[in-house]
């Protein structure tokens, strides 16, 4: 039964009677700061319009008992919950729902404690990646963590969907380096790895946030990084043989030394295409240059293209900040930088999609990609190619729910953004037509996708009754054979499907 105003009041009464201190962190549509709290972590302005459905209530818990109260009372009064950590979900699922709902926003639960001796850290879900990396580097120059590049991404969603960064070829995903977690389940119980059991612990490390419970905190195994790493970003125009070099990159990037990752950004600048090769090498330039000469001479990398720095400086640099800008920007959950490929000085509406590539794409197919870019007005679209191989190929497909391991040369990210607020059908149609153009060149049966690059175009649950068959349309793309095990875990952990959304894992015989 959908909740109405009466249910909302009952819900609020329930919260207050369950938890006496919760009033200070409740925001209803009548609270003066409701809109600013809602928009603070809304990262995609496609979901920030007057027509976007808004939560009945936002709660920003200060402790676990307030999260438990929110779960207990939402369940009792028929409100759906959406959990938000950093708010980067591409489809806004952490703060938009088409049924009456409550947002539990983790903004106040962002504590990080690093144990440099044990090489571990506990991090609460509301922390951002930038905050985590900063706190690790504060304790040791030789420790790091292999998560995503954008510092404002929240660890809550990121880790539960896998989470990759530019060290993935050496250390795998963020989720591959998680050793414990604190989760509140559908009964409101606080569980750790031991009490939740290995199945549930498996599911929350890549099975996508929000299907299994609310993750309060994660325990990480930190990785060792050298005191000096090397960064370069070099660009090649079409006249400088960009297409040939990118074509060659497909054969070498996934076979390079695992200390070396070279991503490729394809962008349109001043009406012509450009390939940007952006790299992190876990070592000094004197070791990098011979490696590049041996394996990828076509790029023509020179010593003065490279800059040596500490690992945390590379994090700051990869995020698009300039050398003169303070490292403290990594702590700021609203800091914006101006990278070459991702121009994100302000929040904007966007639509993104992803693909996996198992066979090199023929050279002439790139011409078709450029034609698509020439169709698109402005300079707001980009593609990023992320090489796999190394550690990514050593981990089995079933080790975590994230199945895209050996056999993948690279992943493609497609993104387009536009000005103003709201939906631009023209841009959405454009990215769909690019995705359609790519069909012959990318993975098939299923056409694989990455759950952290959420895309509702690939299938959604039916409202009302979520059938396994319907969910397997998108589920097999994100998780391949792991989808079945995720359904099994969901059936055990949340048989009544309390934690649900457009792309949540359904239990067997779900009727809600
Ligand atoms: P958000 O709060 O929107 O949550 C995402 C999903 O997880 C939602 O379904 C939400 O309900 C659920 N969730 C959130 N917190 C939860 C919790 N505590 N317990 C249970 N469920 C929870 N990815 C990547 O792998 N590498 C990268 O480099 C980047 N870079 C990047 C840059 C930018 C600008 C964006 C917008 C996105 C990325 N991503 C990425 C994708 C990112 O990993 C993905 O969107 C994450 O889910 C975001 O996590 P947040 O907590 O920020 O999102």
Structural class: alpha+beta
Number of helices: 15
**Strand adjacency order, main sheet:** 15-12-14-13-17-18-16
The helix content, as a percent range, equals 25-40%
Distinct ligand kinds? dihydroflavine-adenine dinucleotide
Question: What gyration radius follows from the Cα positions, in whole Å?
Answer: 22 Å
Task: Fill in the keyword field for this structure.
15 helices, 512 residues, single chain, binds dihydroflavine-adenine dinucleotide, alpha+beta, 29% helix, seven-stranded antiparallel β-sheet, five-stranded antiparallel β-sheet
Please explain how this structure is put together:
- The protein has helices at 5-18, 34-40, 64-76, 129-139, 155-160, 168-171, 193-203, 242-252, 285-295, 311-318, 363-375, 391-394, 425-437, 468-479, 482-493; strands at 26-28, 57-59, 80-84, 101-105, 112-115, 120-124, 143-144, 178-184, 190-191, 214-221, 223-224, 229-237, 260-269, 272-281, 307-309, 350-357, 381-387, 410-417.
- The protein is an alpha+beta fold and 512 residues long.
- Strands 15-12-14-13-17-18-16 form a seven-stranded antiparallel β-sheet.
- It is globular, with a radius of gyration of 22 Å.
- The model has no long low-confidence stretch (mean pLDDT 94).
- The structure holds dihydroflavine-adenine dinucleotide.
- Dihydroflavine-adenine dinucleotide binds at residues 43, 82-90, 93-94, 106, 125, 148-150, 153-154, 156-158, 160-161, 163-165, 209-210, 214-215, 452.
